[in-house]
Amino acid sequence: MSSYAKVPNESDDNLLPDMLGSSQENGEDWSVETPQEASYSPVHHEETQSIRLEDIYVNNWHADDFDEVQPASSEKSVYKNNQRSGFSLRLGNLNQTETEVDLEPGRSEWGPVAWQPESLSTGKRLMYRVSSLAKKLLGVGNGDIWFEDRETSRYCGMISLLLLLAFVVLGLPVVLHKLSPEAPEFPGVAQETATTAVLVSGMRGSVAADNPECSKIGIRVLRDMAGNAVDSAIATTLCQGVLNPFASTIGGGCFILIRLANGTEDFLDGREVAPSAATKEMFFDSNTSVIGGKAVAVPGELRALELAHKLYGKVPWKSLVGLSVELASSSKVGPLLARRLKEYKDIIFESPSLRELFTKAVFVKTSESSSRFLSENEDYTVENIHRRSEGTVGENFNASNYEGQDEEFDLLEENDNWSQVALSKTLELIAERGADALYQDLAESLSQDVIRAGGILTASDLRNYQVIRRTPIHFKYNGLDLISVPPPSSGGPTLGLILNILQLARMNTLGRNGRSYHFLTEALKFAFGERMLLGDPAFVNGTDEQVARMLNESLANDLFSRIVEQKTFPPSHYVTSQRTINEDHGTTHLSVVDEEGNAVAITSTVNLPFGARFVSSSTGILLNNEMDDFSTGNRENAFGLAPAEANEVEPGKRPLSSMSPLIVLKNGTLYMVLGGSGGPRIITSVAQVFLNIATFGDDPAKAIAAPRLHHQLFPNTVFMESLNGSSCELTDTFSSSLSNKPDWSYWSEVCQELKNAGHNITAPSEAGVVQVVVVARDMNGENRRLLAASDPRKLGRAAAY
Questions:
Q1: What is the pLDDT of residues 526-581, one digit of tens each?
Q2: Would residue 733 show up in a list of annotated catalytic residues for this protein?
Q3: 717: closest CA among 524, 561, 556, 564?
Q4: Catalytically annotated residue among 196, 494, 587, 632
Q5: Residue 489 is assigned to a ligand binding site
Q6: Is 210 annotated as ligand-binding?
Q7: What whole-number distance in Å separates Cα of residue 208 and Cα of residue 203?
Q8: Residue 225 burial (10 A CB sphere; 0-12, 13-18, 19+)
Q9: So which domain of life are we looking at (predicted)?
Q10: What is the pTM of this model?
Q11: Whole-angstrom Cα distance, residue 653 to residue 433?
């Protein structure tokens, strides 16, 4: 603590008499002398007219032991009646509260300390620094330790010894904690880039989402609104639908996996369903299930979020939805949305409704072509375009200023102002009325928007939509209890089979090398072969039996026995018939853990990026193209995958999904919450991030940053990211906030060894995107710390407090 001596003013009647001379007060003689050996460097404090006392002590009391010493001069020594015995000084703290402090008899003059730390030998200077730190840590006094006499030096030594012992006692568990895979050390300050997986840490709550701003929204609900994990997950999901609508919106569907601290488990199936008028023949045309109104299935996300809130929420629904109303009214274009707009530029400009939402006007000289464009698209008025591009209502806009010019459209860019007026109004109504606002009040107008775009969605389809509560599935891995979701998710059963096989391979003894990744690749091929027999249990007989079969260890034993080291086989070795594998890249995932230990994993989707490439004009909602997630007759889907009878279109049916929310328990307590986006790459990415943490001991950020591979059996190819598929040389890799340059050299060796075993390697490949929260505990299972990371592949950033 810094101490200051107040410089007397003329009005300071309560201070000592003039400190620059002698005077009489109450019969007492005060005098001031200048110490001959004093050497000071006063530092003036502008607000209090004070001088910093750097080298002052009184009777072995250092000036740092007081907040403020009033009757003193930084350049004078004080005597009272020429007596060298004890005396009283009027002392005060910085709040001007004065106190009388009696000093012990002894030397009463102010003077410089015998020596300063900078003049000591290296050893003594180190002792001084360590001792000062020890004094502060142990709460002894207010100031630094000064070597004024041998007694003080002995105290310094004792305190230093205590500090050393404390370091040994407290530091050893920290070192061991670092070595423990479930409790990696808190991150340092490594440089962060767009390719860095950032590890965040907190004691009370954590949210890992695709969008950094939405992670913050989730923490705001936990910390500032006294919400629980369910409240936080609801607000975060709605946020992502506003800021990253290419991936998920309330016009899509979701899976919600919940595990409360009291052990309650729940799975809310908010998957989209085929409209009542849907038939498989409608989708023989390769485009009808992808683009436009006919591709739209009945959305379920909002109903599922509302049910979760009714069952488990604490914060008022209106308050949670209100956070996204604000974002829809006015926000900035984020870096990921700006990137996706560039990637899908052609799609944006081909769709009038996407162009309206995601472009801004620029003015150029009049041209025949641009005039013709405007006449064919009369909704694109100059006023509307300007209003959208500025993110305001455009009151001050004067179209006459632009006479002789035409409008062209540029994509919105990062940090552009962005206002979604129609969506904001819809969310306001939802905040007031709940999900009924969409499924009842707006049902007719929304269905008419879809029908005008060539679709078959009716108001009745919306009114009749129901969320289904299902029982989560369980499976084991090396003593851990894993909780996931059953069909219409294929993710849970497929993850269970993959990990059951790899448990037999004893991955923890193999490390990261070609052998372990060969086992992984073969396990993926077998599991995806079995996955193809799954479907909506309400329509596909035997689905429940197939789930039980996939989770049975006997199947894993049989399949593991068919793995041959250093050799792979054609698809017929892994499955008897070819089935479809549908991808849903327009997907997002978030993981939440709160202070009480409640956990939520939500994966939501509009299927392909930007869904049906269609925005409802009456509601502002970007709608899904989930009808392409069905198998459609005799054609491959958008990703070149073959059809499967079990997943064909039927009215009211839910298409099979790869979404794989996962909650992991260790010794009966919460250990990990994770999930991902990216179609079938969700399954393989979640599996590998889980293995990186639970088997290889990575912290969450490194586990996410590590390179991944993907195999879905059809096509018979290993997709490997971060390297050249021909040479196996590393290319663009991701880093962790704990290490800017992790050692991924093993990845090239894995590639070469897989090639030697006969695998076809294709690279580069886009992996799935994973968000994870790990609950780290000390060796006694106590002192919980939350460690979270979001995937840099989608520019994500987790948050914690």
A1: 999 999 889 999 999 999 999 999 999 999 999 999 999 999 999 999 985 555 55
A2: no
A3: 524
A4: 587
A5: no
A6: no
A7: 15
A8: middle
A9: Eukaryota
A10: 0.73
A11: 28
